[in-house]
Amino acid sequence: MTLPSLLRRAWSNLFKKPATVQYPFKKLIPPTTYRGRHVLVNERCTGCGLCAKVCPAFAITMVPAEGRALRVIDLSKCIFCYQCESVCPRGAIRRGRDYELATWRKDELVLR
Amino acid sequence: MAEDYVKLIEVLREGLRERFLRYEYDAKRRALKVLVERDALPKAFELINEISRGEYHFTTITGADLGEDDVELTYFLWLIPQKLRVMIKASAPKRDSKVQSLVNVVPATILYEREVYEMLGVRFEGHPRLEKLFLPEDWPENVHPLRRE
Amino acid sequence: MIVTGAVTRQAAERIKRVYEQTPDPKFVMAVGACACGGGVFQNCYGVLGGVDKVIPVDVYVPGCPPRPDAIIYGVAKLIEKVTRGG
Amino acid sequence: MTTTNVIVGPIHPALHEPERFVFKVDGEVVVDVEPRIGYVHRGIEKAMSERTFTQGLYLVERVCGICNVAHTLTAVQAIEDAFGIEPPKRAKYLRTIVHELNRIHSHLLILGVACELIGFDTMFMLIWRDRETVMDMVEMITGNRVMSAYNIIGGVRRNISDHEVSELRKALDTITEKVRQYREMFAEDPTIRARFVGVGRLSRAKALALGAVGPTARGSGVKVDVRVEEPYAAFDEVPLNVVVYEEEDSWARFMVRVDETLESIRIVKECLSKMPPGPVKVPVPEVAPRSSEGFSVIEAPRGELIHHVYTREGEDKPLRYRIRTPTYANIPSVCEMLKGGYIADIPAALVSIDPCFSCTDRVALVDVRTGKKISIDLRMLARRY
């Protein structure tokens, strides 16, 4: 790389926008395909337990609620693979894009 | 191209005689599976060294305890000029699992033999340092995590 | 102190020691599913589970792996906790 | 001859996971090397035979975060081989695309780290900035920046839309331009040449005998590339040039990586235009349909990766699962290339195999004669000498 071309590049970089984003003040939007926090549709869940069986991180447990079994996802164990979404026959677990999941307390991470 | 494996089989069969057990060939993947007696392994690899003039890549050794009395060892090779995937299989009984080490014939086996030893307890005779590789130092002797017991 | 990855039996003692050696004020962030609750490595013979089994954790950042922004969000959460006096 | 032992690691000789080397040194020259690995031994092979095939897929994905696509690809291919399933053609192309994107980001990562280790921080920042573009593309296609969870037994998780294809093409064009510049830099820049040329020599004969794989072997003139020799996924229809350098040193290994990145970009583009329409997955049985064994060998970013699986009919768990990662195969070679070199060259040679076992970057120097321990950061080692 020759010196003049180097200088030109350095000069042009001076006026470019920075490659980084000031994150907490300016939100980044992940693509629509992003695997974030699950959206649970409890009315559609039949309590079949397929998701709990298939979960590779053992994050889904079936608990009794309103006279039937209902899945509960522990996000602190979840690896966001969405195998549960693909296996659910009734679409009771849906894809969400929320990635701001950090909390102070672990029990806040349990999705019902 | 297809003759390459025939030639290899002939050489192995001639060199190993009755210690050569059987073979299978998958034409689609160009993969050759050869089953030999365990004491024939060094000889088999010497023959392969000769045929390929050292132009092969030694991939790995898999040791598998399939719940029977034997540990099955699979040596994976890739012969570069012949473009042939070779799997040499041999089995060692669990109780007396002594196998001749191949370090002198194939230097690349040095770590794999140690791994098979610590995971399955197969003793490789003549290995320069047959000791633990992955497991912590305080791991009990004679406990091999991948054995089905 | 930021802890990532599963806590193995070998590492547990070391994490405790590092935590005790850290001068106050100290805060612990568990980043990633493995550090939060064990993730896929649960029920493996060498893995204990989340970091909170060994040392107290202030902020959990789930995700496998979390986006960089999610980690920064975790730091923002921590700052919030510190300014409020935890 | 009096020699001193220099212990490098266990926490981080160069990159991601812990690993320890004990170097016997005579003055400044390394005489002998002895590796000790297993600090992150999590018992994955054992855990694999306690999980179902689907669950196991997510476990192998986490063997290594950087080449996760390579691991899932090998796993699904090995299991498909054992099951006797053939995935649809479009799925094969999509697998190839994600696999190659993974290679691009992995190679850019190590090129950046190499620059940082020799103190060339500007280059590191630039390369990693462009790596972000690739990460964003992976996120767009698969749903996560790193853990793609894309390959499943019998196909891939989701199809790619036309919009995504055009976005991907655009991104690849910008990357190509950048990587060409980096290639020029790596080939000519005096800083880089001074630090890498002639360092960490590994002769062709040794590379063959010790079973070196991937760029490590190709940098020593061994023409092995699984993608050409045992074409998997769509590589039987997408031709590629194997990059081989004869210089046998660290520099050659990096040049192999830069050229391969360009080659990978070309492959992704070719796949995008050749990709046939059709389904992306076929239904698969949950339990093994037959007692069999399957294996799959692929060219991961760091070299040849092999998974070997035994199944038993009617069981939903593998009987035995064996993984051999490329860095593991390269350990005997790296020991060889460090012998005869200087202590100062350890980082430059270690990083050139793109080690996937080291996590922080700490090095401990132990003087056996005095018993004194000096623990320093690898970057410090890189700078100090």
How would you characterize the overall build of this protein?
- The complex is a heterotetramer of chains A (112), B (149), C (86) and D (385).
- Chain A is of the alpha+beta class and 112 residues long.
- Chain A has one domain (32-111): Alpha-Beta Plaits (2-Layer Sandwich).
- Chain A is built from three helices and five strands.
- Chain A has helices at 3-14, 50-54, 83-87, and strands spanning 39-40, 60-65, 68-74, 93-94, 110-111.
- In chain A, the strands form two sheets. In chain A, strands 2-3-5 form a three-stranded antiparallel beta sheet.
- Chain B has a domain at 3-96: Beta Polymerase, domain 2.
- Chain B has three helices and seven strands.
- In chain B, strand 1 and strand 2 form a beta hairpin.
- The longest helix of chain B is centred in the N-terminal third of the chain and has 14 residues, at 3-16.
- The radius of gyration of chain B is 16 Å and the shape is globular.
- The model of chain B has no long low-confidence stretch (mean pLDDT 83).
- Chain C has 86 residues and is of the alpha/beta class.
- Chain C is 40% helix and 16% strand.
- Chain C has three helices and five strands.
- By secondary structure, chain D is α+β, with helices and mostly antiparallel strands.
- Chain D folds into two domains: 4-40 and 338-384, no CATH class; 44-199 and 229-239 and 254-324, Cytochrome-c3 Hydrogenase, chain B.
- Chain D has helices at residues 44-48, 53-61, 68-83, 89-117, 121-142, 162-188, 190-196, 204-209, 214-218, 226-229, 250-274, 326-338, 346-351, 378-384, and strands at 4-8, 20-26, 29-36, 151-152, 155-156, 292-300, 303-311, 320-324, 362-367, 372-377.
- In chain D, the strands form four sheets. Chain D has a three-stranded antiparallel beta sheet with strand order 1-2-3. A three-stranded antiparallel beta sheet of chain D has the order 6-7-8. In chain D, strands 4-5 form a two-stranded antiparallel sheet.
- In chain D, helix 6 runs antiparallel to helix 11 (250-274).
- Chain D is globular and about 60 Å long.
- Residues 10-16 and 357-385 of chain D have low confidence and may be disordered.
- Chains B and D meet through strand 3, strand 4 and helix 3 of B and helix 8, strand 7, strand 8 and helix 12 of D.
